[in-house]
Design a protein that fits this description.
single chain; alpha/beta; Rossmann fold; SIR2/SIRT2 'Small Domain'; six-stranded parallel β-sheet; three-stranded antiparallel β-sheet; 10 helices; 9 strands; 30% helix; metal-binding; NAD-dependent protein deacetylase; transferase
Amino acid sequence: SITLGLGSPEKILDELTLEGVAQYIKSGKCKNIICMVGAGISTSAGIPDFRSPGTGLYANLQKYNLPYPEAIFQIDYFKRHPEPFFALAKELYPGQFKPTVCHYFMKLLKDKGLLRRCYSQNIDTLERVAGLQGEDLIEAHGTFYTSHCVSFCCRKEYNLDWMKEKIFSDDIPRCDKCSSLVKPDIVFFGENLPIRFFTSMKMDFPRCDLLIIMGTSLQVQPFAGLVGRYWTCSAYTLSRVTITVCADPLFGMLGFGGGMDFDSDKAYRDVAHISTCDDGCMALADLLGWKSVERRSLISMQTKAGQHGKKSVKIF
């Protein structure tokens, strides 16, 4: 109706800027914030993202002699050739890196009682290291915390310590019960997302007051399709990603749907803040009066990370 000029949208933000988002949060009207995050929020911790030209993970897999980069996360290829995945898993295994500013900002949202849920594409578990709990998270692409035998007739479960021992001893993990491969519970291409992803989004999105998207190019479905569910939500703030996504290709061509609109004459709700993810979070924390809290959290966790030998990120 807005696109056809049959109605005018409710104005939520005083201005379509980060300052406007901060004022909205401080007004008390914003009570349920959802974060959608991808690999870009972990790059400052030293973990590569997937698709950045030259530096992304897919651009640096030549040593594994893959038929194509994405094969390392294809379930059929994994069952035939598990060695490349487990070699990569050893390099990126959880526990070697520390959370970034973005991770701690989401923890601050939780501490302030504002975070309804974090929907993450990441498998690095840094959201948990920063202090988010299982109920705070939808790990859309799975987790390293548990592993299962790939045999449908077995499906025996293994814990993180068991898998870590196998990976770091350069053994291909195999089931004690049936000798089939054992795979961490991360979602490969060709596998279904966790059921909780679908059940939670039906409860969370209708209640969402503010959606914060960081570090994802929104190219992988069905995660990217979540944006199309937000036509009932109030505002978005986007770090690093400058694309507009429509829920449905046909609706997108017609100008309908749940796509983000940052700069058209009809823009009224969506905000693009172009910066690194960490800088964007620090800027918003500053506008909210939380910057000193964010910095103290970082220093405290930086100290703990140093004590445990984790790779750290520079505090600015």
